[in-house]
Amino acid sequence: VNTGLYYASVAFRGVIENSTWNPAKNSIVVNFNVGADLREAIKATTVGIIGEKGSAMYIGGVQDASTRAQDASATAGRAFTLTGGKLKVVGTDPSVGITLKSSSGKETKVAEDLWVTNDPSKLTFIIPADLEDGTYELKITTQFGSNSKTMLKVPRSVMKTIYIGTAPSGGGSSSGGDGGLDENPLG
C-alpha cells in the first residue's frame, strides 16, 4: 500500500510445513517506510522552541494534620503534609531544605528533626511552633533526581503559599488539587 505519506507491506516469515501455520515458527510482519510526501513534509517542518522543559518537581496537594484542612492552612506546632512529585529533600548544598518565608520577609528553615516523612511523593513535617499566624511562602529545595541514587548537581525548588492560622477565603495558591491525600496523613 502506497499512500504517499508511507509505504506499507506485509511479509510472512518462516517455512510453512505440511500446509500448516505454526505460530512458534511462523509470523506476520508489517513494514512501514516513509513515502516521498512525508519526506518533503519533514524537510519543510519548522520547530519552535517555546522554553525550557519544566521541572518534574511539583506540589499536588496539602493537608494540615490538626484540622484535616486541604486549603493550604496550617497549624503551628502540628504536622503538615505535602503530596506531589520529586519532593524528597536530600543533598549537600546549603540551600537544600524546607523554608517558610513570612510576608514580612523573615525566613525560617525547618530543622531536619521536624521532618516526619521524607519520600519522593509525600513530605510531612512539623510547622515550627513559634511561627505567628499569617501568610508564608513554603519552599522545598532538593537535589533529589529521578531516583534515590541520582542527585542533581544544582538544587531545584518548588514553592507554595500557605497560611498559618486560618486561610483567607479561596484557599492557597492554585498549584494543584488534593493530590490523593489519605484522610489521616500520619497513618
UniProtKB/TrEMBL annotation:
Pfam family, one: HU-DNA_bdg
Region named Disordered: 166-187
DUF4469 domain location: 58-157
Biased composition (Gly residues): 168-179
Domain Bvu-2165-like IHF-HU-like DNA-binding: 1-49
Name under which the protein is recorded: DUF4469 domain-containing protein
Organism of derivation: Bacteroides cellulosilyticus
Lineage: Bacteria, Pseudomonadati, Bacteroidota, Bacteroidia, Bacteroidales
